[in-house]
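Exercise: predict the fold of this chain.
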Amino acid sequence: MKIGDVEVRDDVFNVKVKKHVLWEVVKWQLAKRRQGTHSTKTRGEVAYSGRKILPQKGTGNARHGERGVNIFVGGGVAHGPKPRDYEYPLPKKVRKLGLKMALSDKAQNDAIIFVDNIDLGEQPKTKKAVEFLKNLGVDKEKVLIVIPEKNEVLYKSFRNLQNVRVLLPEGLNVYDVLWANKLVIHKECLDRIYKKVEA
């Protein structure tokens, strides 16, 4: 199939999209990103004495042991969260298929723009970045820009723009592709995108 004047491979940009596969990959990606550093103290960890707080009988109060149990304010938490790793394995085939489907979804909705050049000059300038997006007609959209090599000027020019993300082909992922309304891809990145979904 063709996108603009660029011939692209059907097995990457024209795959049948299955929502469930995309959902699986996004869920896996977001689980990997979780820090999992949440932690609560159990009754054995709170800073209270283990002494019995009042006699068992004769005071008219309920039968209580120590101050740090979970029914008291400031006591331990029963079955609370502890640090853990949320990452889980997802087959490579599913991950690659997900990326193909995400790219196909954008291609089928005319949301991919190929460009020959992204030149914003020698110094980082957000103003020039906005002009570049205006020329493409995507300045009001959420945009993912795929560039062929690390470029400080591009990164710094676009990073002030809330709705723009810049990635190398190797960093292309389902979540960011689906997040964007438009994909702006440098033509030189095409072979590396193919390599990513095959490798």
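Check your answer against the key: The beta strands are 2-3, 6-7, 112-115, 143-146, 164-167, 182-186.
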